[in-house]
Amino acid sequence: MRFISGAGDAVGPIVVVFLLAAIIAVAVTPVVRAVVLRYEIVDRPEARRVNKIPVPRGGGLAVCAAFLLVAGLFLLVNQTAHFVPVPFSLDPSEVAALLLGGAAATALGAIDDLFDLRARYQLIGQVFLACFAVALGVSITFITNPLGPDFQFSGPLAAGLTIFWIVGMINSINWIDGLDGLSSGIAFIAAVTIGIISLTTQVVGQPLIAVLCFTLAGSLLGFLRWNFHPATIFAGTSGVQFVGYTLALLAILGTAKVAVALLVLGVPIIDTFWIIVRRLSERRSPFSPDRTHIHHRLLDLGLSHRQTVLVIYGICLVLAVLSMLLSGVTQIYAFLGVFVAFGLILFVPTRGDFDRPDELEAEAYEPQPVKDVVGK
After folding, report:
1. How far apart are the first and last CA of the chain?
2. Helix, strand, or coil here: 363?
3. Long-range contacts made by residues 113-122, C-beta under 8 angstroms, separation at least 24?
4. Which residue from 201, 319, 202 is spatially nearest to 261, judged by alpha carbons?
5. Coil, helix or strand for 321?
6. CA–CA separation, 93 vs 309, rounded Å?
7. Could you tell me if 51 and 45 are in contact, meaning their C-beta atoms sit under 8 angstroms apart?
8. What are the pLDDT digits (tens) for 108-141?
9. In CA terms, which of 30, 231, 241, 322 is 20 to 30 Å from 219?
């Protein structure tokens, strides 16, 4: 892995936006929590959930606010200060797709947090978001082929692939969001990795994309202060839709890093694939809820809540390192190895009935009565 010649100049802006976004997210999240509690926007206990008491959701509003505020301010200041160069391949309309689309994704997710929309309506909203991005010029025009010439796309094929990628990424982040801090931590690792790779010769160096990636990473890290186990607030649909949409666009803005993102985000992507296969094999809708995700399986195998999250973090970190150190066919082998391993974990029998560890009990979340959690 080799860094571009101007990578050092981007370190200062990266550190500033990372810390500023993290501080804002840390400060804004309790405010968001107070608001959603006031309106009783909470995740209530269900058979497939691990929380035993109502926990407020909608924390994605804080992540979105921190990212949009810091990213928007930096882009505005950078126009005159020129801290980092703007890639020639990055159009203003694509930046608008990132920022305005991220805000729209959060807003649509917040509607679901409030009204618990059916899956079909969520899917319609996700397709709308993807079409909005495509209309503003975001498109996957090629994917690196380590075995030969790159795969080139144009016209309706490029548009369809881009829509599929954005919708798929949103749902991958959504479906892995089953434990405290899980989706936020995975997204943090992915954002940092894509940011670092944006400063290398592995792709066409893009310091501005790196700054935006680290802005997202800082927002997620600040939110994790409140979202890691035991969580005092969940990201909610507003969070997973914003994070999934933003990561999807950051992976393709400028030069397409979709192949890299496939490996870095291998855990949620592969988990989503096998879950769909399992549900279809059981003649169920792929959007029907259950508790057969990779994190549920690891819990069934005896790991605690925190151990399960840390194990999946570890897998993601390994994949992130591989994406930076490996290239070509070796990346494919790594992806296929995880693909097969996840298939075995998700399909082999576990020890049967779900035996909740003690730290999944209500006391692990909030040492107060339920009526105080949801408001009076």
Report:
1. 56
2. helix
3. 113/36, 113/41, 113/57, 113/58, 113/236, 113/237, 113/238, 114/39, 114/41, 119/285, 119/287, 120/287, 122/237
4. 319
5. helix
6. 37
7. yes
8. 999 999 998 888 899 999 999 999 999 999 999 8
9. 322
Tokens (6 digits) for 286: 């792929």
pLDDT tens for each residue of 173-232 = 998 988 999 999 999 999 999 999 899 876 667 899 999 999 999 999 999 999 999 899
Total residues found in the chain within this entry: 376
The three-point CA angle 219-225-226 to 5° equals 105
For the chain, what is the radius of gyration of the CA atoms? 20
CA diameter of the chain: 63
Tokens of 355: 């035996």
Helix (H, G, I), strand (E, B), or coil: what is residue 163? Answer: helix
What span, in angstroms and rounded, lies between the C-alpha atoms of 303 and 305? 7
How many CB atoms within 10 Å of residue 200? Answer: 17
CA–CA separation, 307 and 22 (whole Å): 25
Q: Residue 367, exposed/middle/buried by CB under 10 A (0-12, 13-18, 19+)?
A: exposed
- Report the distance separating Cα 46 and Cα 36, nearest Å: 19
Could you give the angle at which helices 207-227 and 7-38 cross, rounded to 10 degrees? 30
- Integer angstrom CA distances of residue 205 from 87, 119, 139, 199, 218: 9, 39, 19, 5, 21
